[in-house]
Design brief:
- This protein has 530 residues and is mainly beta.
- Helix content is 6%, strand content 44%.
- Strands 1, 2, 3, 4, 5, 6, 7, 8, 9, 10, 13, 16 and 19 form a 13-stranded parallel sheet that branches.
- A hairpin with a 5-residue loop joins strand 23 and strand 24.
- The longest helix has 12 residues.
- The protein is globular and about 90 Å long.
């Protein structure tokens, strides 16, 4: 074909295929690629140097609802502004398996996309910015990338599933149309973000829901008043999980919302948040709503149990929101510790061989540095995090202290203020300066707590070596304190760790002039002495 402007219909009959070769430049106002019942595939081949432009004069449509339709070749496919592409392929616009597989593809940001398959579709390599976006597939559409919609987004039929960590941004004039319900909504669980650009105060309802159990529609409305807007947007996240710092054990919501305003200052925001019956753990009547600013819980807003709704007014900063027990949330201080245990750490995998239990303490900042409160916490083998919940302390200044069944007791470098209802995070793995007396061992880029204090007397010495040696001689296995490296066998590898640390006179280093053994050249000295 040479240069022409035309409307094309390819309609293969049963038992036949249709092939259209394009060698020149073709501009289509309408391209209908369909098939009668039992028809085979229709294929458009755009050869090297060929060009197929979709749309002319701000309009034009391409109907490719038949999943057997393929547009491919070494030439170029181009959509013009205002054109509409109706996609039926289960692989959407994937460059290798989807509808359009040409070597070169150029989509105008003004292109309108309609996804109307019968099986669940993947959007594939849809452009980063589109004009209008329509879901017309009862089986749903999966979007696993960041995308902006400048015009309307329409739910004719089916759900839009946002992949983990993907972001959907709706423009300032974008409206959501269609009959919104549990069957027609955005599923944005697992950390996906939905953002709405705003140039002035106003209100927007995010059409979100959840399908982790029975599908439920849980819209979120954000209404902003006042404020200064500079390329501003508001965004929400929602996860069906208990907040990691929600200490309520009996009554809480298994739902977390994140609210963020960016490029907007001096605003006041009112939020209405819907939750499902399946989100309620325990007694709904015992719940109060809470927001978290990254370090402190604050009771905020009201819960209407009859409609499963949380209402929060007067927000002026980014926050996370959930629900829990009033007494527990306000009366508990949380210490999140990141630590690595020398014996359990595998430098090859950059993980610990097992997760294990720590004893966490808060010690007075004043001599004699007594322990004020304590708790048990599991240290995760992959992320090295443990979460301590302290319920018996008053607001004050404390040293954090870590004990482990066969490691050296390790103190934080300095005391810090902790209050009830607050969350404090301490990292013992990145710098020797985070530990009192720099009393950690460096393994690659990781700082780890010294291992092999088997008898927990504060030193690694002959008594620890003797216990390990005896168990190694007796081929002891299992979860025992003499298994220093956590492989469930007591053997030479455990002795090696203990012997090295004993040779270097490794011992506990803590404030208050406690006698310690820390280096080979200074067998005994007081903490802080030069």
């Amino acid at each position: 074909m040479g240069d022409l402007q035309t409307a094309l219909t390819l309609r293969p009959s049963p038992g036949n295929n249709v092939l259209l070769n394009i060698n020149g430049s073709v501009i289509c106002r309408q391209l209908n690629l369909s098939a009668v019942a039992g028809g085979n595939a229709a294929r458009v081949q755009i050869n090297l140097g060929g060009l197929l432009k979709m749309g002319q004069g701000g309009s034009g449509s391409m109907d490719c609802t038949n999943p057997n339709i393929v547009i491919r070749g070494d030439g170029t496919f181009q959509s013009l502004s205002g054109s509409t592409i109706n996609v039926g392929s289960p692989n959407g616009l994937d460059t290798a398996l989807g509808l359009i597989r040409t070597r070169s593809r150029v989509f105008s940001t003004g292109t309108n996309f309609v996804f109307s398959g019968t099986l669940q579709q993947a959007a594939g390599n849809v452009p980063d910015t589109v004009n209008y976006f329509t879901i017309n597939n009862a089986a749903g559409l999966q979007l696993n990338k960041n995308m902006a919609v400048n015009g309307n987004i329409t739910f004719t039929s089916g759900r839009l599933y946002l992949g983990k960590a993907s972001k959907l941004t709706l423009g300032t004039i974008t409206a959501v149309s269609g009959t919104l319900s549990a069957a027609n909504m955005i599923v944005a669980d697992s950390g996906a973000t939905i953002a709405k650009r705003m140039t002035a105060a106003g209100s927007f309802t995010f059409p979100v829901g959840d399908t982790s159990g029975a599908a439920v529609y849980l819209p979120v409305t954000a209404a902003l008043s006042s404020g200064t807007y500079s390329n501003g947007y508001v965004s929400i996240k929602m996860n069906r999980s208990k907040h990691q710092f929600n200490v309520s054990s009996s009554n809480y919501l298994k739902r977390v919302w994140g609210f963020q305003a960016s490029g907007i200052s001096g605003y006041s925001a009112n939020l209405t948040l819907k939750y499902g019956d399946a989100d309620i753990q325990g007694l709904e009547g015992q719940l109060s709503s809470w927001r978290f600013n990254g370090s402190l819980w604050q009771q905020s807003g009201t819960i209407t149990t009859a409609s499963n709704q949380i209402t929060i007014t007067g927000l002026t900063a980014n926050t996370e929101i959930t629900a829990g027990e009033q007494a527990t949330m306000s009366g508990t201080a949380i210490l999140q510790v990141k630590a690595v245990l020398q014996g359990l750490f595998d430098e090859n995998t950059q993980r610990m061989r097992i997760s294990d239990t720590l004893q966490l303490y808060l010690a007075s900042a004043q001599s004699p540095f007594d322990f004020i409160d304590s708790c048990s916490a599991v240290l995760d083998s992959a992320n090295f995090l443990s979460l301590g919940k302290f319920t018996h302390l008053t607001t004050g200044v404390y040293y954090p202290v870590i004990r482990h069944r066969n490691s050296i007791e390790t103190w934080g470098a300095y005391p810090f203020t902790i209050v009830k209802g607050s969350v404090v995070q301490r990292d013992f793995t990145q710098s020797v300066d985070s530990v009192f007396g720099s009393n950690v061992i460096t393994i690659g880029s990781i700082k780890a707590m010294y291992a092999a204090d088997v008898n927990q007397d504060g030193f690694v010495d002959f008594s620890d070596l003797a216990m390990i040696d005896n168990d190694a001689y007796n081929f002891t296995t299992g979860y025992v304190v003499t298994d220093v490296n956590g492989d469930a066998f007591v053997d030479f590898s455990d002795l090696t760790i203990a012997d090295n640390n004993a040779y270097n006179f490794v011992g506990c280093v803590k404030p208050g002039g406690t006698l310690i053994r820390n280096t080979r050249n200074a067998v005994m000295r007081k903490a802080g002495e030069k």
